[in-house]
């Protein structure tokens, strides 16, 4: 369990005044972040811009520079006063905080079935791309959005068990180094004091991919399970509904919260969707294959 600690670094005389950024809201999660490092605050403000809201926060994150403390844990992250972790490098604290925020949305959202999947949209129809990590979901959805599709998420499909719709989780796109050469224009333009935060991963706001790309919700119409295989030719093969349902269930973050109702919600998704398995080693061919089956 996280250890509850007063983030005293925010109160020490001589430190920069704490700056609150936000509030932000997504899928019922309302939060703000308090930071006493100007560079960290500036970067987080850019990365979280697509989640900005005017609603009051119910969860408060804090990033504290505890100069003079244990060097291995100088930068500490708190959630509602409880210490989550500390690290030595200020460049690492930002991706770790964003990871925790994302994890909270995926696992603690109680009114949507959350599935590890990227989601794009064509004319109000959701293209759900469920797959485990390192399958190329973010790369593919970034290319689809760049090609004109709407953006809902690169991480977690949020299925409403009552309506069957997919709601947007329009977080920053997390592009890893293997994708950078495909999207050189998406490299964050950062001043020197922020550049270190993008050394290992680019946190790209949706509007940078295509302005106005975010859509609030879409009706499930396609379930396409992508697999990236370097050097392999592109193939799009029909996938049975039982296999598609199994993939969605395996990739669900919080299915246990819903029990039978959650499983039925996912069964409803595949019941109204065309289901395919996409294997590809070429991003352009993958986009063309998705376009072909989605019309």
Oligomer: single chain
Q: Strand-residue fraction? A: 25-35%
First-last Cα distance: 49 Å
CATH structural architecture of the largest domain: 3-Layer(aba) Sandwich
Description:
By secondary structure, this protein is of the alpha+beta class. It has 2 domains: 3-108, no CATH class; 113-294, Rossmann fold (3-Layer(aba) Sandwich). Helix content is 29%, strand content 31%. The protein contains 9 helices and 16 strands. It has helices spanning 38-47, 90-108, 137-146, 177-180, 192-195, 206-209, 241-250, 260-271, 283-294, and strands at 3-4, 19-26, 29-35, 59-65, 75-79, 82-87, 113-122, 125-130, 150-153, 156-159, 166-167, 173-175, 202-204, 217-228, 235-238, 274-280. The strands form 3 sheets. It has a 6-stranded mixed sheet with strand order 1-6-5-4-3-2, covered by helices on one side. The radius of gyration is 20 Å and the shape is globular. The protein starts with a strand and ends with a helix. 40% of the residues are buried.
